[in-house]
C-alpha cells in the first residue's frame, strides 16, 4: 500500500514539474499577447454555431494530460474526431487525455500492487500491457462507432434536405441564401446535417469561396454522399446548369440508394438472427421439449437396473 502511494505521488510530482516547464517555455510575452489581440486570427473552419461556450475545467485538465499522452501526434485522429462531430481546438488533446486515463490508469493500478506483493515482473508487465491495450482499443472503438453513427445520420437526412433546397431554389432564393435557410431550419432540430449547413453559411458570409466551402463540407464529415453532392454542386455552378433540376435528380438518386440500403439490411437480418437464435433460444427450447422425456427415461433406467 505504501509503495503504491509513493508511486502515484511520484507520478503526480513528475507530471506537475513537466507541465510547469512546458508552460514556462511556451508562455507568451506581453508584447505577443498585445499583437494577438490587435491582429485577429485567420478565419478557420469554425466549430458549430450552437457551441459557443469555452472549455470546462475538466476538459482543460484532460487536454493538458492529452498533450503528454501516447498517440497525441496521430494525423488521422483529428479527421476521425471531425467525422464524429468533435471539432473544438482541444478535441484531439481531450480525447487523447481520456484515452490515456482509461488505459494507463487501470494498468498502473494493476502493476503496482503486483510488484509490491513480489509477483513476477514479467507476468505483471504482461497483464498491465493487456489492460492498457484493452482501454486503448475501447476508446478507439467508441470513436469509430460514434463517427459511423453520425455519417449514417447525415446520409439518411440528405435526400429530405435536398428536397427542401429544391423548394427554396424554385421559390427564388439563391444558393447561398438556400444553404443559410436550410441550416437555420434544421439546426434547431438537433440535426447534424443542419448544423453543417449552418457552418457552411457562416463560412460563406465570412468571405470564403463557395467551392472551398463545399469541398471542406464533404471532407470533414466523411460521408461519401455528401462529397458527391459537393462535387455535383461545384460542377453545376461552373457549367451554369439549373441547380434546382440537378438537386432534384440527385435527391431521387439518394432516395433510391437509401431504399436499397434498407432492403439490404432487411435481407441481412435473418443471418444476423441466426447466432442469437442458436445460442439463446434453441438451448432453452431443447430443455423445455426434451427435459421431461430425459427425466422419464432416467426413471425407467433406474427401475430396470434396480428391479
Oligomer: single chain
Radius of gyration, in angstroms, nearest whole number: 29 Å
Tell me the fraction of residues in β-strands, as a range: under 5%
Query: How much helicity do the residues have?
Result: over 70%
> How far is the first residue's CA from the last residue's CA?
66 Å
Task: Give an account of the 3D structure.
The chain is mainly alpha-helical. The chain is 81% helix and 0% strand. It contains eleven helices and no strands. The longest helix has 64 residues, at 243-306. It is flat, with a radius of gyration of 29 Å. The termini are far apart. Residues 39-53 and 65-73 have low confidence and may be disordered.
Give the tags.
single chain; 307 residues; mainly alpha; 11 helices
List the helices and strands and how they pair.
Elements: H1 2-26, H2 30-38, H3 57-66, H4 75-84, H5 91-116, H6 121-170, H7 175-187, H8 192-205, H9 210-221, H10 224-239, H11 243-306
Helix pairs in contact: 3-5, 4-6, 5-6, 6-7, 6-11, 7-8, 8-9, 9-10, 10-11
